[in-house]
Amino acid sequence: MFTRREALGAAGSVLVTGAALTPLIAARSAASDPPAAAPGAAGAGAATVERFRLAMPVPPVLAPVSTAGGVDRYAMTMRTATAEILPGLRTEVLTYNGQFPGPTVRARSGRPVVIRQHNALTMPTSVHLHGASVAPSSDGDPMDTVAAGTSRTYRYPNRQPHASLWYHDHAHHMESEHVYRGLSGAYLLRDRTEARLPLPAGAYDVPIAIRDAAFTEDGQFSYAMGDRNRTTMLANGKAYPYFRVAARKYRFRLLNASNMRMLRLRLGDGGPIVQIGTDGGLLARPLTATDVFLSAGERADVVIDFSRYPVGTELVLENTAPPGPADLVGQVLRFDVDRTADDPSEIPAVLRTLPPLPEPTAERSVSMNMKPPQAFMDDKVYDPARVDAHVRYGASEVWTVTNASPEFPHNFHMHLVQFRVLERNGKDPNPSETGLKDTVNLMPGETVKLQATFDAYRGSYVYHCHMLDHSAMGMMATMKIA
Length: 482
Fold this sequence. Notes:
With 482 residues, the chain is mainly beta. Helix content is 6%, strand content 39%. A hairpin with a 7-residue loop joins strand 1 and strand 2. The protein is globular.
């Protein structure tokens, strides 16, 4: 259950409007993509949306334009499109290849992927592969942008183990609105460790991006920095959809694609959910629980066994995390059990062996705080010209991260590395965060100790709050690995 302290922290997560942004975003012209709706517009909000009318789509798998030379090459275009998010209405969205959310890239460890990104929008963008170990030139640094009308090639060596990654815009001061309007998609990396397991696969392995939104009367996105009225819940780009399933096991790659919202997901009947993985791939052993918690940007790999239910069952996936009225944010999607099916899949008692942690070579502390209209990392607003942490190449460091805000929740994301959570508030981490992570939640006053090893690439990378409204306001810093 969500604790009272968590609820108070989440309820305090209101920020400020565009007045907090720098002149860079203030200089947006009336032709920007697309014009923001009036702040706080309720419009076609969750209270008026007919539930479970639209089918939840499975994002299409992107086909490579070439596989020559052992490299999978893809092409994407960032452009505006329209999508039926609310029943009977068309919403203007920002997309990769016209898809909302973006197409899924399925990759293999050890086989490089190259993606040519063309920016057909009128604003600069920067594509970040969240959770990936890549060179600085392909990391999607907030200031390393793709200008409108130009193209950029991103190279992903895929030298890391399997993981449910995702890609999204990271252009500083614009990342919040760009991701909110649609610039994100799944990147699922597979390896032999994962492939040899008899987990649900093929059509029974489904990515689900969950997020919130607010709409104007005519069904357009309403965007304002820190808006707490994003109370319409979306799954794979549809408001309160249904998803037809067979009476067998399914693997769902859950992503919290919200800008700020936390999710605590449960089945409507309180049935078990088996978590098998997190941000950086499979857990060592499956974890059976009645709910799954995800802060913005976090992922959970889960298995739900629908063979417990007779054909004809309608089972709602609920969210019990605030803020917002439970009758609006409390339902996400509905699973409709409409057929039987053979099920050769299993959930092994042991999923993987996590590598032992090396002896730490250094320790450092990081403090996250917010005093609207600004947000801070170690009492500093992000400055791309400043290096905040010098890290020795090959070092394995222990970082103690504290949310010093008395009322605002935050979370902490590091580029380049997957880390291990060592402690939460001086105690063992939650069982669901014992695997490899790249994003970790911190409620007001909480402290998390984590360990990361920096032995992949040299160069500069950022770390920041992945509540994107917060990072857009300055809660971000740069580490230089040399």
